[in-house]
Amino acid sequence: MRKPHDVLADMAAVIDIDGLHRGEQLGERGYIYRFDICALAYVIAEWVGPSGIPAEFFDDELGGIRIIEASAGAMAAIRALSDSLDSTVDEEELAPGFYVPNHIAHVSNWVRFGPPGSNQPPSTSEVIGRVQRAANTLAIQTPTAPAA
Question: Which of 52, 57, 108, 118 would bridge 27 by S-S if both were Cys, CB 3.0 to 4.6 A apart?
Fold first, then answer.
């Protein structure tokens, strides 16, 4: 599994070059594929090439979310990015009385709509800056194994 700070650093570079998809579904096909920020975390964490991109990202948002949730690398990066945001994470009830934080919705909604109370989404530069800060925070907090 790739280190979350490496995934986040690569995400910032890809967003700078290709931009982000902020519409319906998790991605859009084209000469350059653009992805929702969480789908991008999956593509980078899993080293997915153009032929391996899940079709669900383009036509089945719930299925695409389940694929992202199954990727430990993508979820680690998404959690770190979610933790760097100034708003709180909504919880989703999975079973009666059992709630879990919904980091995917937290991050995706921040990119698409902005923080709660805002009337506009963050600019691409703001998204890149937040992703880079999350990556830098992880790089500082992650201990390095001693040399053997």
Answer: 57
Total domains present in the chain: 1
Provide the terminal-to-terminal Cα distance of the chain, rounded to the nearest Å: 21
Evaluate whether 11 touches 131 at the Cβ level (below 8 Å): yes
The C-alpha atoms of residue 109 and residue 113 are separated, in whole angstroms, by: 6
Phi–psi pair at 93, nearest 5 degrees: -85, 115
**By three-state DSSP, how is residue 114 classified?**
coil
Residue 20 lies in a domain: yes
Q: Mind listing the pLDDT tens digit for each residue in 38-54?
A: 999 999 999 998 889 99
Burial category of 127 from C-beta neighbours within 10 Å (exposed 0-12, middle 13-18, buried 19 and up): buried
CA nearest to 69, candidates 26, 132, 117: 26
User: For residue 148, is it within any domain?
Assistant: no
H or E stretch covering 3? none
Mean pLDDT of the chain: 92
Q: Is the pTM of this model over 0.85?
A: yes
Q: Is 91 exposed, middle or buried (CB count within 10 Å of its CB: 0-12, 13-18, 19+)?
A: exposed
